[in-house]
Amino acid sequence: MQVVWMYRLGLVFGNAAYATAATLAAFFLGLAIGGWVWGNASAKLKRPLRLYGLMEIGIAITALLFIPGLDFYENYYATLVSFLDGQSGMLTFLKFMFSITLLLFPTILMGGTFPVLAQYVGKKRRQLEIRGTLLYALNTIGASLGAFLAGFILLSRYGVNTTYALAVALAAAVGLAAIILDILTAMNSEFKQADKTRSTATKKGNSGASKNSALRLNYSLMITLAFTSGLLALSAETAWIKMFAQVLQNSVYSFSAILVVFLIALGCGGFLSHLLVRFNFRPLPTLLVLLSAGAILVALSPVVFNKLTDGLGYVAGDASWTGYLGAVFKMGFLVVFPPTLILGTVFPYLLKASPKTSKESGQFVGLLVLCNSIGSTIGPILTGFFILDAIGLWGSIKIVAVIYGALGLLIAFSIPAPKSLRWMALPVAGIIVATVMTNPPLVHLEKGERLLNTWQSTDGVVSVVQSNENIQMRLDNFYVLGDTRSTLVEQMQGHIPLLLHPDPEQVLFLGMGTGITAGAALNHSVDRVVAVELVSNVITAAESYFTPWLNGLFSDSRVEIVADDARNYLLGTKEKFDVIVGDLFTPWHAGTGSLYSLEHFQMAKEQLKPGGIFAQWLPLYQLTPEGFETIAATFNTVFPEVTLWRADFSGSRASIALIGQQKGSQLDQEVLERNIARVVGSKDSSPAEHMTGLFYLGNLDAIEQQLSETELNTDDQRTIEFKAPILSQRANAGDGTYMVGMELEKLLTSLSKNLPPEEDPYLSNLPQNEMRYVTVGLLYYRYLNYKAAGQTNKADILKTKINQLAPGFLNDSTQTPTGS
User: Fold this and answer.
1) How many domains does the chain fold into?
2) pLDDT at 205
3) 690 and 798 fall within a common domain
4) What pLDDT does residue 820 have?
5) Residues 410 and 482 in one domain
6) Angle value at C-alpha 394, between 387 and 270, nearest 5 degrees
7) Integer angstrom CA distances of residue 530 from 82, 502, 513, 541
8) Which residue has the higher pLDDT, 356 or 752?
9) Is 456 within the bounds of a domain?
């Protein structure tokens, strides 16, 4: 259920890191309140199992309020943004409060289930120690199974809504089963007699435990460990996820795999705690060993990670899909599992190590849940928004390790002298290892590359790398956001959609990257340009290193640069635009699939003025044919008139745009001439041929039948998010292909044969001398690729055809076709 909450809230709150953190905070805060409230209430219960059943049914019922709550949010979000008038801090706070309100009732009930069950299984302290640790372990292993099923099977196969309905139904079923079991238990007098017998046996068992009472935690140290175990475990998980993001595909599957390993390790930690309780080890020395070992293993995790990845190299890039997943799980178990196993033992072991108390089992466990959940609330926020920014990824992991060692020292001081001095050696060793360990590299550099700068945050690691004269911006090591070598192509991604609009005054760019594309818009007669970028450090990097190529983007008064999620911005703005341009979003990257969804395209369409244009650029070198068809079919469902355009003539790294317009739109010769004259600054009343047709690929109507049976990408059925990672990995392994080479040739051939330029209604207003450049563009693309492949005979044949259609074109092809 929590997985689905994260998915749905990510859409309406935005995929920005603060939104995810707010959701986690709301979730754990509800658990904290629930643990405290229901833990105290359970002490007065005669039949806690029945209450547990009612709570599970209550979770199912209150969880149903989630959907209308989101609808309410979506309906009034734009009004709220308008009312706050740019007060981003207040908006973030109100989002946080809304997420708390939305999740409060079910999470308060969830937080109470463990204390109530603890009251049921552990009437006496020894019972609680043995059964409570086992209960914790089983519960966490169950959570790992749920995360695996949701991340790898249910969401991809059945969609978000069905998965959520199944989770709600399962909660209700568990509740009903608990109530039936409670009724049967209450009716069984033999069970009651057996319980008395067990209580007697427990008292005998407790006599052995009392021998170690002098080596238990005091009350304040118990609270400290309960709080820090949650804070540090979630902090470590946050840092590890960022660490793995430097070498993985970063799809929903990669993150799900790391989460599953983390939860399995926590569950196994619960089982280890159960064994330690049964063997009746002395609590304080046991905790000291656990904390010291945890400090050392956490500190070593970056070193092991660096070794396994051979200096942050890309993991299993050419492996099959199963091979890739196997490599991710293997790395997770080698890097994350050992320290998490130890760390996961600490919290359940507090049932044994805590001081004797007069509190009932439910009250006692509720107090531990309260402290642990508050720590779990603070940990991701503290690490993600402050520690990562302040001391970076490796420093964040080190500080977690050092604090674990410091907690071990705190335990050592609680052990009676003179033994305490000997025990101090272990946590001190952990602190020393964490402090002196050499940090691995943060950015993987190839031969000849030089790192200019890096920025770290919870959004990822942004780096700027120079190779010869080329300056490149990257996110998380292997995701290239643009470079100076591709300046012309990036500029064309801004020029093409703006050239088609008769008067592009208000322009919106969803995704900024280097800023070169948005900067190109300033060559047009625009009044306002808004560039929305999810990763705030990308904005900093662009301004710091790409300003010479940005056409005054950071100094022009017409420009507003917004650090926000693209969908969240569209949901919150009441402004209408003439042209909206969607950036090249990596299809398999977690979260970006929603930027190719039906709902996103509809949202963008609603923000267009009458006659407006929406252009969605697609990286064909990252899309398989299946992925391309899914996006094209989804786009075509929203926009009645869709045409395809190229930004370059590459056969291996082609990027094309789906341009959506209102029904009956046509390419206007006068508009093209006027806009091109503005861009190039021509004052000639009789301008040369603009040759815009070179960049025109065709009308989507040409392949409409091919797309008619294609599955759409929606917020419910996230086809791109779940299928693109698999398809792309298969293509990497040679079991499939991207939309390059022959696959791109197939598309171009279908477009030109099924609806030739002279029959395309979109081109009907173009004069013949300009329409011929559509055919010239196709021939020129083939000519360049034959030439690059060394097939000179085929290239010469095409050269002859091009010269017949457009004499002198090849002689002038070193210039841009627009004449600039």
Assistant:
1) 3
2) 40
3) yes
4) 35
5) no
6) 85
7) 16, 19, 13, 18
8) 752
9) yes
Name the residue with tokens 């998010």.
Answer: 721
Q: Nearest 5°: phi and psi at 315? A: -85, 125
- Residue 603 falls within a domain, yes or no? no
429 shares its domain with 464: no
DSSP states of 425-467 as a string? HHHHHHHHHHHHPPPPPSS---TTEEEEEEEEETTEEEEEEEE
Nearest alpha-carbon partner for 225 in 69, 407, 39: 407
What is the tens place of the pLDDT at every residue in 6-59? 888 877 777 666 666 777 788 899 999 999 999 999 888 888 999 999 999 999
**What average pLDDT does the structure give for the chain?**
90
Instruction: Read off the pLDDT of residues 143-161 as tens digits, 9 standing for 90 and up.
Output: 999 999 999 999 999 999 9
Helix or strand holding residue 474 (H, E): strand 470-475
> Reduced to 3 states, what is the DSSP secondary structure of residue 588?
coil
Instruction: Decide if pLDDT at 583 tops 90.
Output: yes
Rounded CA separation 605/670 (Å): 25
**How far is 107 from 31, CA to CA, in rounded Å?**
5
Q: Pinpoint the alpha helices (H) of 312-418.
A: 321-335, 337-353, 361-382, 388-414
Print the domain residue range for 753: 584-596+614-820
Confidence (pLDDT) at 141: 96
- Per-residue pLDDT at 214 exceeds 60: no
What is the spatial distance between Cα 311 and Cα 716, in angstroms, rounded to a whole number? 38
What would the two tokens of residue 357 be?
Answer: 């108390």
Clarify whether residues 557 and 626 are in a common domain.
no
- Please report whether residue 570 resides in a domain: yes
What is the dihedral sign for C-alpha 355, 356, 361, 363? negative
C-alpha 638/C-alpha 662 separation (Å) is 10
CATH of the domain at 418: 1.20.1250.20
Is cis: bond before 418, omega within 30 of 0? yes
The answer to whether 522 and 559 are in contact (CB under 8 A) is yes
**Claim to verify: residue 565 and residue 591 sit in the same structural domain:** no
| Structure-token pair, residue 246 | 């430097």
One domain, residues 107 and 182: yes
278 assigned to some structural domain: yes
Q: Among 331, 397, 555, 388, which Cα is nearest to 17's?
A: 388
H or E element, residue 615:
strand 608-619
User: Are 433 and 300 spatial neighbours (Cβ–Cβ below 8 Å)?
Assistant: yes
Tokens coding 356: 């004797």
φ, ψ dihedrals at 546, nearest 5°:
-115, 5
Q: Which of 418, 436, 454 is the last residue of a domain?
A: 436
Answer yes or no: do 744 and 797 share one domain. Answer: yes
Q: How far apart are CA 692 and CA 665, in angstroms?
A: 16
Report residue 304's pLDDT band, with 50, 70 and 90 as the boundaries: very high
